[in-house]
Amino acid sequence: MGKTLLRAALLSIFVCFQAVRPGWAQEAKGPATDVGFYIVAHQDDWQLFMGSHAYDDVQRPRGKAVFVCLTAGQAYEPGENYWRAREAGCRASVQSLADAKTPPTSTPVSSTVRINGHTIAMMRYKNTSAYFLRLPDGNLQGQGFDRCNFQSLKKLRSGEGSITDVEGINTYTSWGDLSRTLRMIIQQESSTGKVWINTPDSEDKYNPRDHSDHQMAGRLAASATANTESCMLMYVGYDVAFRKTNLSPPQAAKQASVFSIYCQGLTNGGQATAWDPGHLRFMGRQYYRTRHSSGSAAVVRVNAITQANTGVEEADDAPEAETSLKLEPNYPNPFDQASMIVYHLPQAGFVTMRIYDLRGNVIKVLVQKEETAGRHEVWLEVDQFPASGQYICQIQAGGQHREQRLQISR
Fold this sequence. Notes:
Strand order of the largest sheet: 3-4-5-2-1-8-9-10
Number of domains: 2
CATH architecture of the largest domain: 3-Layer(aba) Sandwich
Oligomer: single chain
InterPro entries: GlcNAc_PI_deacetylase-related, LmbE-like_dom_sf, Secre_tail
Protein name: T9SS type A sorting domain-containing protein
Number of strands: 19
Organism: Hymenobacter persicinus
Helix content: 25-40%
Order of helices and strands: HEHEHEEEHEEHEHEHHEEEHEEEEEEE
CATH topology of the largest domain: Rossmann fold
Domain Secretion system C-terminal sorting: 331-406
Protein backbone atom coordinates (compact mmCIF):
# COMPACT_ATOMS: atom_id res chain seq x y z
CA MET A 1 0.00 0.00 0.00
CA GLY A 2 2.78 2.41 1.00
CA LYS A 3 4.73 1.80 -2.20
CA THR A 4 1.58 2.22 -4.30
CA LEU A 5 0.97 5.62 -2.71
CA LEU A 6 4.59 6.58 -3.29
CA ARG A 7 4.38 5.63 -6.97
CA ALA A 8 1.19 7.68 -7.32
CA ALA A 9 2.80 10.65 -5.63
CA LEU A 10 5.88 10.45 -7.85
CA LEU A 11 3.74 10.21 -10.97
CA SER A 12 1.65 13.22 -9.98
CA ILE A 13 4.76 15.26 -9.23
CA PHE A 14 6.32 14.34 -12.56
CA VAL A 15 3.14 15.22 -14.51
CA CYS A 16 2.84 18.51 -12.65
CA PHE A 17 6.44 19.54 -13.44
CA GLN A 18 6.03 18.67 -17.10
CA ALA A 19 2.77 20.60 -17.37
CA VAL A 20 3.98 23.86 -15.85
CA ARG A 21 7.50 24.00 -17.31
CA PRO A 22 7.90 27.39 -19.04
CA GLY A 23 10.08 28.20 -22.03
CA TRP A 24 13.81 28.69 -21.54
CA ALA A 25 15.24 32.16 -20.92
CA GLN A 26 11.86 33.83 -20.55
CA GLU A 27 10.82 35.86 -17.56
CA ALA A 28 8.36 34.04 -15.35
CA LYS A 29 4.81 35.40 -15.33
CA GLY A 30 3.90 33.90 -11.96
CA PRO A 31 4.90 35.46 -8.64
CA ALA A 32 7.44 32.79 -7.60
CA THR A 33 10.51 33.82 -9.60
CA ASP A 34 13.90 32.67 -8.31
CA VAL A 35 16.48 35.43 -8.70
CA GLY A 36 20.22 34.95 -8.99
CA PHE A 37 22.19 38.11 -8.18
CA TYR A 38 25.77 38.52 -9.41
CA ILE A 39 27.39 41.23 -7.31
CA VAL A 40 30.90 41.89 -8.61
CA ALA A 41 33.57 44.57 -8.67
CA HIS A 42 34.45 44.69 -12.38
CA GLN A 43 32.62 44.13 -15.64
CA ASP A 44 34.38 40.84 -16.44
CA ASP A 45 34.40 39.25 -12.96
CA TRP A 46 31.22 37.22 -13.28
CA GLN A 47 32.17 35.82 -16.70
CA LEU A 48 35.64 34.74 -15.55
CA PHE A 49 34.85 33.35 -12.12
CA MET A 50 31.09 32.61 -12.17
CA GLY A 51 30.31 32.27 -15.87
CA SER A 52 29.00 28.71 -15.89
CA HIS A 53 26.55 29.39 -13.06
CA ALA A 54 25.40 32.66 -14.62
CA TYR A 55 24.68 30.88 -17.89
CA ASP A 56 22.60 28.24 -16.10
CA ASP A 57 20.71 30.78 -13.97
CA VAL A 58 19.49 32.71 -17.00
CA GLN A 59 18.31 29.48 -18.66
CA ARG A 60 16.59 28.22 -15.53
CA PRO A 61 12.77 27.94 -15.75
CA ARG A 62 11.02 30.59 -13.63
CA GLY A 63 14.36 32.29 -13.08
CA LYS A 64 15.92 35.71 -13.44
CA ALA A 65 19.49 36.97 -13.21
CA VAL A 66 20.55 40.41 -11.99
CA PHE A 67 24.11 41.68 -12.48
CA VAL A 68 25.52 44.49 -10.35
CA CYS A 69 28.93 45.89 -11.34
CA LEU A 70 30.25 48.17 -8.62
CA THR A 71 33.25 49.83 -10.27
CA ALA A 72 34.01 51.28 -13.68
CA GLY A 73 37.22 49.24 -13.82
CA GLN A 74 39.06 52.15 -15.38
CA ALA A 75 42.48 51.13 -13.99
CA TYR A 76 45.27 53.41 -15.29
CA GLU A 77 43.48 54.22 -18.54
CA PRO A 78 42.74 57.93 -19.16
CA GLY A 79 39.42 59.17 -20.45
CA GLU A 80 36.18 57.19 -20.75
CA ASN A 81 36.73 54.91 -23.75
CA TYR A 82 38.25 52.00 -21.84
CA TRP A 83 35.71 51.64 -19.06
CA ARG A 84 32.81 52.28 -21.41
CA ALA A 85 34.07 49.50 -23.70
CA ARG A 86 34.30 47.18 -20.67
CA GLU A 87 30.73 48.04 -19.75
CA ALA A 88 29.56 47.50 -23.34
CA GLY A 89 31.20 44.08 -23.27
CA CYS A 90 29.41 43.22 -20.05
CA ARG A 91 26.06 44.33 -21.46
CA ALA A 92 26.64 42.23 -24.58
CA SER A 93 27.55 39.14 -22.56
CA VAL A 94 24.40 39.52 -20.44
CA GLN A 95 22.31 39.76 -23.60
CA SER A 96 24.04 36.70 -25.04
CA LEU A 97 22.93 34.66 -22.02
CA ALA A 98 19.30 35.62 -22.52
CA ASP A 99 19.52 34.81 -26.24
CA ALA A 100 21.36 31.49 -25.80
CA LYS A 101 18.21 29.36 -26.11
CA THR A 102 15.66 31.78 -27.60
CA PRO A 103 15.79 34.25 -30.52
CA PRO A 104 16.42 37.93 -29.79
CA THR A 105 13.15 39.67 -29.04
CA SER A 106 14.03 43.35 -28.93
CA THR A 107 16.79 45.84 -28.25
CA PRO A 108 17.88 45.87 -24.59
CA VAL A 109 16.40 48.81 -22.71
CA SER A 110 19.11 51.05 -21.24
CA SER A 111 18.14 53.74 -18.77
CA THR A 112 18.94 55.21 -15.38
CA VAL A 113 17.08 54.60 -12.13
CA ARG A 114 16.98 56.58 -8.93
CA ILE A 115 17.81 54.41 -5.92
CA ASN A 116 18.53 55.69 -2.42
CA GLY A 117 19.14 59.17 -3.80
CA HIS A 118 21.62 57.96 -6.44
CA THR A 119 21.22 57.84 -10.22
CA ILE A 120 22.38 54.46 -11.51
CA ALA A 121 22.81 53.23 -15.08
CA MET A 122 21.03 50.00 -15.87
CA MET A 123 19.85 47.66 -18.63
CA ARG A 124 16.88 45.29 -18.89
CA TYR A 125 16.54 42.47 -21.38
CA LYS A 126 14.23 39.46 -21.19
CA ASN A 127 14.79 37.87 -17.76
CA THR A 128 17.98 39.81 -17.00
CA SER A 129 18.90 43.16 -15.49
CA ALA A 130 22.28 44.83 -15.10
CA TYR A 131 23.27 47.76 -12.89
CA PHE A 132 26.47 49.79 -13.26
CA LEU A 133 27.50 51.99 -10.32
CA ARG A 134 30.73 53.13 -12.05
CA LEU A 135 32.72 53.67 -8.86
CA PRO A 136 36.51 54.12 -9.11
CA ASP A 137 38.64 51.01 -9.52
CA GLY A 138 40.52 50.67 -6.24
CA ASN A 139 43.70 49.04 -7.59
CA LEU A 140 45.03 45.69 -6.39
CA GLN A 141 45.62 46.63 -2.74
CA GLY A 142 42.90 49.25 -2.41
CA GLN A 143 45.25 52.20 -2.77
CA GLY A 144 43.29 53.64 -5.69
CA PHE A 145 44.49 55.45 -8.81
CA ASP A 146 45.67 58.99 -9.31
CA ARG A 147 43.02 59.80 -11.93
CA CYS A 148 40.27 59.22 -9.33
CA ASN A 149 42.06 60.92 -6.42
CA PHE A 150 43.03 57.53 -4.99
CA GLN A 151 39.46 56.66 -3.97
CA SER A 152 38.57 53.00 -3.39
CA LEU A 153 35.91 50.73 -1.92
CA LYS A 154 38.44 49.58 0.67
CA LYS A 155 38.99 53.14 1.89
CA LEU A 156 35.24 53.77 1.97
CA ARG A 157 34.74 50.73 4.18
CA SER A 158 37.52 51.79 6.54
CA GLY A 159 35.98 55.25 6.93
CA GLU A 160 38.60 57.16 4.93
CA GLY A 161 36.18 59.56 3.27
CA SER A 162 33.44 59.24 0.69
CA ILE A 163 33.58 57.85 -2.86
CA THR A 164 32.33 59.51 -6.07
CA ASP A 165 31.71 57.68 -9.34
CA VAL A 166 33.94 58.31 -12.35
CA GLU A 167 31.35 60.61 -13.96
CA GLY A 168 31.04 62.79 -10.87
CA ILE A 169 27.30 62.14 -10.62
CA ASN A 170 26.92 60.14 -7.41
CA THR A 171 28.74 60.42 -4.11
CA TYR A 172 28.36 57.73 -1.48
CA THR A 173 29.13 59.26 1.86
CA SER A 174 29.69 56.02 3.76
CA TRP A 175 29.84 52.24 3.50
CA GLY A 176 26.34 52.17 4.95
CA ASP A 177 25.10 54.47 2.17
CA LEU A 178 26.49 52.13 -0.50
CA SER A 179 25.21 49.05 1.34
CA ARG A 180 21.69 50.50 1.58
CA THR A 181 21.76 51.26 -2.14
CA LEU A 182 22.69 47.68 -3.02
CA ARG A 183 20.11 46.36 -0.58
CA MET A 184 17.40 48.42 -2.29
CA ILE A 185 18.45 47.06 -5.70
CA ILE A 186 18.14 43.52 -4.35
CA GLN A 187 14.76 44.27 -2.82
CA GLN A 188 13.49 45.89 -6.01
CA GLU A 189 14.53 42.96 -8.18
CA SER A 190 13.47 40.17 -5.80
CA SER A 191 10.31 38.16 -6.15
CA THR A 192 8.62 35.66 -3.85
CA GLY A 193 10.98 32.93 -5.02
CA LYS A 194 14.44 32.10 -3.73
CA VAL A 195 17.25 34.66 -3.64
CA TRP A 196 20.76 33.50 -4.60
CA ILE A 197 23.70 35.85 -4.09
CA ASN A 198 26.77 35.15 -6.23
CA THR A 199 29.76 37.23 -5.20
CA PRO A 200 33.52 37.03 -4.60
CA ASP A 201 34.69 35.34 -1.40
CA SER A 202 35.92 38.05 0.97
CA GLU A 203 37.97 35.76 3.23
CA ASP A 204 41.69 35.36 2.52
CA LYS A 205 41.56 31.85 3.96
CA TYR A 206 39.46 30.66 1.05
CA ASN A 207 40.30 33.31 -1.56
CA PRO A 208 43.93 34.40 -1.13
CA ARG A 209 45.76 37.03 -3.19
CA ASP A 210 42.62 38.48 -4.71
CA HIS A 211 41.96 42.04 -5.89
CA SER A 212 40.83 44.40 -3.11
CA ASP A 213 37.73 45.37 -5.10
CA HIS A 214 36.75 41.71 -5.37
CA GLN A 215 36.96 41.29 -1.61
CA MET A 216 35.03 44.52 -1.01
CA ALA A 217 32.29 43.35 -3.40
CA GLY A 218 31.91 40.21 -1.28
CA ARG A 219 31.80 42.19 1.94
CA LEU A 220 29.27 44.61 0.50
CA ALA A 221 27.04 41.76 -0.69
CA ALA A 222 27.11 40.26 2.80
CA SER A 223 26.30 43.62 4.37
CA ALA A 224 23.44 44.34 1.97
CA THR A 225 21.82 40.94 2.55
CA ALA A 226 22.23 40.82 6.33
CA ASN A 227 19.13 39.43 8.08
CA THR A 228 17.53 38.34 4.82
CA GLU A 229 16.63 34.90 3.52
CA SER A 230 19.20 34.01 0.89
CA CYS A 231 21.79 31.51 -0.23
CA MET A 232 25.21 33.02 -0.91
CA LEU A 233 27.72 31.45 -3.29
CA MET A 234 31.18 32.92 -2.64
CA TYR A 235 33.73 32.48 -5.43
CA VAL A 236 37.49 32.31 -5.59
CA GLY A 237 39.05 34.96 -7.83
CA TYR A 238 42.63 35.21 -9.09
CA ASP A 239 43.75 32.17 -7.10
CA VAL A 240 41.86 29.80 -9.41
CA ALA A 241 44.74 30.19 -11.83
CA PHE A 242 46.82 28.07 -9.43
CA ARG A 243 44.19 25.35 -9.04
CA LYS A 244 43.36 22.44 -11.27
CA THR A 245 40.63 22.70 -13.87
CA ASN A 246 37.34 21.51 -12.42
CA LEU A 247 34.71 22.45 -15.00
CA SER A 248 33.33 19.84 -17.36
CA PRO A 249 33.70 20.56 -21.11
CA PRO A 250 30.09 21.88 -21.37
CA GLN A 251 30.60 24.12 -18.33
CA ALA A 252 33.92 25.41 -19.63
CA ALA A 253 32.27 26.16 -22.98
CA LYS A 254 29.65 28.29 -21.24
CA GLN A 255 32.35 30.20 -19.36
CA ALA A 256 34.38 30.76 -22.52
CA SER A 257 31.31 31.84 -24.47
CA VAL A 258 30.30 34.68 -22.14
CA PHE A 259 33.89 35.86 -21.73
CA SER A 260 34.50 35.89 -25.50
CA ILE A 261 31.42 38.10 -25.95
CA TYR A 262 32.81 40.47 -23.34
CA CYS A 263 36.13 40.57 -25.21
CA GLN A 264 34.33 41.35 -28.44
CA GLY A 265 32.75 44.34 -26.72
CA LEU A 266 36.23 45.60 -25.86
CA THR A 267 37.49 45.38 -29.42
CA ASN A 268 34.28 46.90 -30.80
CA GLY A 269 35.04 49.86 -28.54
CA GLY A 270 38.52 50.23 -29.93
CA GLN A 271 40.30 48.58 -27.00
CA ALA A 272 42.70 45.65 -26.85
CA THR A 273 41.10 42.27 -26.33
CA ALA A 274 41.23 40.58 -22.92
CA TRP A 275 41.41 37.19 -24.65
CA ASP A 276 45.05 36.90 -23.61
CA PRO A 277 47.18 34.60 -21.42
CA GLY A 278 46.65 36.79 -18.37
CA HIS A 279 42.90 36.16 -18.46
CA LEU A 280 42.75 32.76 -20.13
CA ARG A 281 44.61 31.21 -17.18
CA PHE A 282 41.29 31.42 -15.31
CA MET A 283 39.40 29.39 -17.91
CA GLY A 284 38.05 25.95 -17.01
CA ARG A 285 37.98 26.74 -13.29
CA GLN A 286 35.18 27.76 -10.94
CA TYR A 287 35.64 27.40 -7.20
CA TYR A 288 33.13 28.52 -4.61
CA ARG A 289 31.59 27.74 -1.24
CA THR A 290 28.01 28.15 -0.09
CA ARG A 291 26.44 29.82 2.91
CA HIS A 292 22.73 29.94 3.67
CA SER A 293 21.09 32.65 5.76
CA SER A 294 17.64 32.02 7.17
CA GLY A 295 17.44 35.72 8.07
CA SER A 296 15.05 37.67 10.19
CA ALA A 297 13.86 39.98 7.42
CA ALA A 298 13.45 37.91 4.28
CA VAL A 299 12.80 39.96 1.18
CA VAL A 300 9.29 39.44 -0.17
CA ARG A 301 8.07 41.30 -3.23
CA VAL A 302 4.29 41.47 -3.56
CA ASN A 303 2.61 43.54 -6.27
CA ALA A 304 5.82 45.53 -6.88
CA ILE A 305 6.07 46.48 -3.20
CA THR A 306 9.09 45.26 -1.24
CA GLN A 307 8.39 44.26 2.34
CA ALA A 308 10.29 42.55 5.13
CA ASN A 309 8.81 39.86 7.32
CA THR A 310 10.00 37.51 10.03
CA GLY A 311 12.00 35.12 7.86
CA VAL A 312 9.36 33.11 6.00
CA GLU A 313 8.38 33.61 2.41
CA GLU A 314 4.77 34.49 3.06
CA ALA A 315 3.46 36.02 6.25
CA ASP A 316 0.46 33.70 6.21
CA ASP A 317 2.81 30.71 6.45
CA ALA A 318 4.35 31.72 9.78
CA PRO A 319 2.25 29.46 12.03
CA GLU A 320 2.86 26.44 9.77
CA ALA A 321 6.62 27.03 9.73
CA GLU A 322 6.78 26.34 13.47
CA THR A 323 5.16 22.91 13.27
CA SER A 324 5.79 21.59 9.77
CA LEU A 325 8.64 19.77 8.14
CA LYS A 326 10.21 21.90 5.39
CA LEU A 327 12.28 20.71 2.42
CA GLU A 328 13.80 23.51 0.33
CA PRO A 329 14.55 23.15 -3.39
CA ASN A 330 18.15 22.15 -3.97
CA TYR A 331 20.55 24.60 -5.60
CA PRO A 332 21.77 24.58 -8.25
CA ASN A 333 19.10 22.62 -10.08
CA PRO A 334 19.68 21.25 -12.70
CA PHE A 335 23.25 20.37 -11.67
CA ASP A 336 26.13 18.47 -13.20
CA GLN A 337 28.61 18.42 -10.33
CA ALA A 338 27.15 19.08 -6.89
CA SER A 339 24.09 20.64 -5.30
CA MET A 340 22.89 21.39 -1.79
CA ILE A 341 19.49 20.58 -0.32
CA VAL A 342 18.30 22.11 2.95
CA TYR A 343 15.58 20.89 5.29
CA HIS A 344 14.12 22.17 8.54
CA LEU A 345 12.86 19.95 11.35
CA PRO A 346 10.20 21.42 13.68
CA GLN A 347 11.35 19.04 16.42
CA ALA A 348 14.00 16.42 17.11
CA GLY A 349 13.30 12.95 15.75
CA PHE A 350 14.25 10.17 13.36
CA VAL A 351 14.82 11.38 9.80
CA THR A 352 14.92 9.41 6.58
CA MET A 353 15.87 11.01 3.29
CA ARG A 354 15.97 8.97 0.09
CA ILE A 355 16.47 9.56 -3.62
CA TYR A 356 14.02 7.79 -5.95
CA ASP A 357 13.90 7.45 -9.69
CA LEU A 358 10.58 8.12 -11.43
CA ARG A 359 9.64 4.43 -11.18
CA GLY A 360 9.76 4.56 -7.40
CA ASN A 361 13.04 2.68 -7.02
CA VAL A 362 15.35 3.79 -4.22
CA ILE A 363 18.61 5.12 -5.69
CA LYS A 364 20.32 6.37 -2.54
CA VAL A 365 19.62 6.74 1.19
CA LEU A 366 21.06 10.12 2.18
CA VAL A 367 19.94 10.32 5.82
CA GLN A 368 18.69 7.68 8.23
CA LYS A 369 19.27 8.77 11.83
CA GLU A 370 18.09 10.82 14.80
CA GLU A 371 18.54 14.55 14.32
CA THR A 372 17.94 17.69 16.35
CA ALA A 373 15.33 20.31 15.53
CA GLY A 374 16.36 23.10 13.18
CA ARG A 375 18.14 23.50 9.88
CA HIS A 376 20.18 20.74 8.21
CA GLU A 377 22.12 20.52 4.91
CA VAL A 378 22.92 17.61 2.62
CA TRP A 379 25.28 17.82 -0.36
CA LEU A 380 24.32 15.89 -3.48
CA GLU A 381 27.01 14.65 -5.85
CA VAL A 382 26.32 13.58 -9.43
CA ASP A 383 28.16 10.30 -8.91
CA GLN A 384 25.36 9.30 -6.51
CA PHE A 385 23.04 9.06 -9.53
CA PRO A 386 23.19 6.33 -12.19
CA ALA A 387 22.39 8.59 -15.14
CA SER A 388 21.17 12.00 -16.23
CA GLY A 389 17.49 12.71 -15.79
CA GLN A 390 14.87 13.50 -13.18
CA TYR A 391 14.79 12.13 -9.65
CA ILE A 392 12.74 12.72 -6.53
CA CYS A 393 14.20 13.52 -3.12
CA GLN A 394 11.83 12.50 -0.31
CA ILE A 395 12.25 13.25 3.39
CA GLN A 396 10.22 11.65 6.19
CA ALA A 397 10.20 12.85 9.80
CA GLY A 398 7.64 13.09 12.58
CA GLY A 399 4.89 11.46 10.54
CA GLN A 400 5.31 14.00 7.73
CA HIS A 401 6.95 13.73 4.32
CA ARG A 402 8.02 16.19 1.63
CA GLU A 403 9.32 15.77 -1.94
CA GLN A 404 11.44 17.83 -4.31
CA ARG A 405 12.41 17.23 -7.93
CA LEU A 406 16.09 16.92 -8.85
CA GLN A 407 17.47 17.27 -12.37
CA ILE A 408 20.83 15.72 -13.24
CA SER A 409 22.52 17.11 -16.34
CA ARG A 410 25.86 15.68 -17.48
